[in-house]
Write a structure and sequence with these properties.
Elements lengths: L1 H4 L4 H19 L3 H8 L3 H8 L7 H9 L4 H5 L1 H28 L11 H33 L1
Helix pairs in contact: 3-4, 7-8
Length: 149
């Protein structure tokens, strides 16, 4: 079914759907028994979605959307983009801090001196990584603004 259409990490996908389904229940105030009744399923079947054991089949996915579950809750798009953006922000700040400390360093007699050309290449590489990360962060922020509209 879903496995045949996409190549993905099934455990990660189950966890993402499970978290989103829980968020949907919390947001709407629905209980497992309410969803089970709407789908003519047992509470155990719906609990398996909440507990990350299984996915609903396609018709049930569409019905969940009709009931108000968002695509973001279902697939974790916004959550994944936010987490990626936060990781990039932290990584970029760490690179900037290391670069700043490295520039301020006076290379004492006990530290290893790096030849000027190699030093310039390292600094250039770090600055390039900072620019790449900042561009990706800006792109993710724009995408997240679209999800919030």
């Amino acid at each position: 079914m879903i496995d045949d259409c996409f190549e993905f990490d099934k455990m990660e996908a189950l966890e993402t759907f499970s978290n989103g389904f829980q968020h949907f229940l919390d947001r709407t105030g629905l209980k497992i028994k309410d969803v089970a009744s709407a789908f003519d399923l047992t509470k155990a079947a719906v609990s398996s979605w909440k507990n990350g054991v299984s996915f609903p089949d396609y018709p049930k996915i569409f019905k969940l959307l009709e009931m108000g579950m968002t695509l973001d809750e279902m697939f974790g798009i916004k959550i994944a983009k936010t987490e990626k953006m936060n990781r990039l922000i932290v990584e970029t700040e760490e690179i900037k801090n290391h670069l700043s400390l490295w520039k301020k360093s006076s290379f004492s007699a006990t530290s290893v001196e790096i030849p000027d050309e190699q030093s310039r290449k390292i600094e250039e590489s770090l600055n390039t990584k900072i620019i790449e990360n900042e561009n990706e962060i800006a792109h993710l922020k724009m995408e997240l603004k679209l999800y919030n509209k």
